[in-house]
């Protein structure tokens, strides 16, 4: 009976999202556990099976750190962005477009759906300009969603790594920002940013203090009060950008919580902080 009630609760939400585009940004600590990877992929495959068009944008920090460490290189960050020298960009592209991307594509295939791994380089999906302060890190200037729309039309799940094209060569892009801008040009119904905390908390040490909804006009005040601080600021900025540019719902939620994607999309309860 409990299971039947869960399905009954999910039905109107399934109906709501059939044929709609959901952009999910996945990375960080949720990538460290195979069990969590499988849980996230199973949620994505289930959504695909009921007719939701899912686009998965991924980072790869743990894999990049691991490779650079093996090569005797230290990871360096400026303003929260990974400094990327001429040698690093080759390794980062190799990890993001190769190892991390293809592992996710393979796992989706094993779970029962069809995925295609691409990056911002493919079909000039994302064009960027270099931000010299950060080395070979770029700021996106244009996104052409044609390739992704074609893949979605054929019921593939696009798995996108955050490397972009530029006249100077490949550029590393912050995956949160990449996903936010992609959600805007795809006119997504939902942009979901998975992180390692439950959402925006009034007390960062107490998950019960979760703020479930935030109007984007309230963000400056919450930053001034110190409630939104540190690494949460750029994530909130990405959600604010998406919300101000036509994405109907944007959320920050805990990617290390099993089935947080389904709880957010297909239940009355929701999961995380929604920006509107």
Overview of this structure, please?
This protein is an alpha/beta fold. Helices cover 41% and strands 22% of the residues. It has helices spanning 2-17, 34-49, 61-70, 86-111, 146-153, 175-185, 219-224, 232-244, 260-266; strands spanning 21-26, 53-58, 77-78, 81-82, 115-120, 126-130, 138-143, 157-164, 171-172, 190-195, 213-214, 249-254, 273-275. Strands 1, 2, 5, 8, 9, 10, 11, 12 and 13 form a nine-stranded mixed sheet that branches. β8 and β9 (171-172) form a beta hairpin. α2 packs across α4 (86-111), α3 crosses α4 and α6 packs parallel to α8. The chain is globular, with a radius of gyration of 18 Å. It starts with a helix and ends with a strand. The mean pLDDT is 93.
């Amino acid at each position: 009976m409990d299971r039947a009630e869960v399905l009954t609760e999910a039905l109107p939400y399934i109906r709501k999202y059939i044929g709609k585009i959901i952009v999910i940004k996945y990375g960080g600590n949720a990538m460290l556990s195979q069990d969590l990877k499988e849980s996230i992929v199973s949620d994505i495959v289930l959504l695909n099976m009921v007719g939701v068009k899912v686009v998965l944008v991924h980072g790869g920090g743990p894999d990049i750190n691991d490779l650079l460490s093996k090569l005797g290189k230290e990871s360096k960050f400026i303003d929260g962005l990974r400094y990327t020298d001429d040698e690093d960009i080759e390794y980062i592209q190799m990890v993001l477009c190769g190892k991390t991307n293809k592992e996710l594509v393979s796992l989706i295939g094993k779970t029962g759906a069809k995925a295609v791994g691409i990056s911002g380089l493919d079909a000039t999906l994302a064009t960027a300009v270099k931000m010299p302060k950060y080395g070979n890190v770029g700021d996106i200037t244009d996104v052409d969603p044609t390739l992704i729309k074609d893949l979605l039309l054929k019921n593939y799940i696009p798995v996108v790594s955050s490397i972009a094209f530029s006249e100077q060569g490949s550029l590393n892009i912050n995956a949160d920002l990449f996903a936010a801008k992609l959600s805007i040009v795809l006119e997504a119904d939902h942009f979901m940013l998975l992180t390692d905390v439950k959402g925006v908390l009034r007390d960062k040490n107490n998950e019960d203090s979760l703020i479930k909804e935030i109007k984007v006009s309230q963000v400056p005040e919450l930053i001034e009060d110190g409630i939104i601080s540190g690494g949460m600021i750029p994530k909130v900025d990405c959600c604010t950008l998406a919300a101000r540019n036509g994405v109907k719902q944007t959320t920050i939620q805990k990617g290390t919580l099993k089935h947080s994607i389904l709880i957010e999309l297909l239940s009355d309860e929701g999961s995380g902080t929604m920006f509107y």
